[in-house]
Amino acid sequence: MNPIWRKTHSDFRFNGVHYEFDELQEVGYSLVKEGESYEIAIGEFLLDWSTDKETLEVFTSGSTGKPKKIKLNKLHMVNSAIATGKYFGLSSKDSALMCLPCSGIAGKMMLMRAMVLGLELKSVEPSSNPMFGATTNFDFAAMVPLQAENSLKQLSQIKTLIIGGAPISMSLKESLITFPNAVFETYGMTETVTHIAAKRLNGSKNDTINNPFEALPNITLSKDNRDCLVIKAPKLSDEEVITNDIVNLATETSFEWLGRFDSIINSGGIKLIPEQIERKLSTVIDARFFVAGLPDASLGQKLVLLVESVDISSEELLAKIKDLKGLDKYETPKEVFALKQFFETKSGKIHRSQTIKLL
User: Fold this and answer.
1) Measured between alpha carbons, how far is 359 from 341 in angstroms, rounded to an integer?
2) How far is the C-alpha of 142 from the C-alpha of 89, rounded, in Å?
3) Burial class (CB in 10 A: 0-12, 13-18, 19+), 125
4) Contact predicate 172/145, CB 8 Å
5) Of all residues in the chain, what percent are helix, strand and coil, respectively (each to 5)?
6) Which end of the chain is more exposed for a tag (fewer CB within 10 A), N or C?
7) Number of other residues whose CB lies within 10 A of the CB of residue 157
8) At what angle do helices 37-49 and 105-117 cross, to 10 degrees?
9) CA 197, 67, 258 angle in degrees (round to 5)?
10) Element (H, E) at 70
11) Are 77 and 85 in contact (CB under 8 A)?
């Protein structure tokens, strides 16, 4: 008997055309040889997927360090696609938009979901504004926060939108609260075959801004002695996944994400979580930014703010920050640095360590 992954759903369509599993090799080869630059990664994935191997190699995003090559079980990827379909209520013949690069796990899984669930998938070149000029509606799409922010005027054309890959700013969350269609923030990583938890972003403000992430079915959660999330997902991984994400665990299936353990700043003995500070600062900063700890003779590390902009006054911005309610005095940056452009990972996330080197 063929493994479950050695077939495509009868309703699967890729850019309007149905392909059987046995045709994926030819399609992949054609895209690699003759496709647009962004289609080469799609072709390479199809070539990998259509072999007899039960696993395939993928790279982690590299947003917190050097990208690592890991192996994923194809059956686990199928299970992830099925879980996504059930959680978000997707049906065969639903339309979906693929606007993330297939070089990363998020793009690969959009293609996987289409093949497994029978979605009609339209692929477009990944960009910061993937909905620009789009005239059709979609039942499902996945974006990173920057894409969602740049597509706000057309997001109503998407029935169910999931946003992940990076923290979502408070200003974007505020913009999405009254959206007519379903919008979710997702939590996951390459090791868990994309998302393992989600939370609804639109609805009443009290129910969405601070509500916890809810795990998808068949996933249980715990914490280690660092207060970092530990994920048990037997259908997605043979082993528990120990993360570096600091969380408040509400139940064994829900949590509040606080920040990264490996990004904690120790300033004068005070432990600061950059992601928590950034959520507060997002109310007064429109450009991309992040906070970091730089070596300091007296404090050990001093908190600084890096902003991707050449049009700001560091002094004026620092004055606004100091007047910000809810910001502890230890959470106020000692300096502000304005940079023309941040370094990015291949998946479009801010490469913090490389950007800091610019200083």
Assistant:
1) 12
2) 15
3) exposed
4) yes
5) 30, 30, 40
6) N
7) 17
8) 60
9) 40
10) strand 69-73
11) no
Rounded distance between C-alpha atoms, residue 53 and residue 178, angstroms: 46
| pLDDT band per the 50, 70, 90 thresholds, residue 1 | very low
What 296-302 contacts at long range (C-beta under 8 Å, 24+ apart), as own/partner pairs, is 296/267, 296/334, 298/268, 299/267, 299/268, 300/266, 300/267, 300/268, 300/269, 301/265, 301/266, 301/267, 302/267, 302/334, 302/335
Which single residue is written with the structure tokens 């496709």?
35
User: Which pair of structure tokens corresponds to residue 325?
Assistant: 């309610």
pLDDT confidence bin for 208, thresholds 50/70/90: low
Determine the Cα–Cα distance for residues 104 and 100; give it in Å rounded to an integer. Answer: 8
Q: Which two tokens stand for residue 62?
A: 């590299």
Q: Does residue 76 register a pLDDT over 90?
A: yes
Which tokens belong to 111?
């293609």
pLDDT at residue number 298: 86
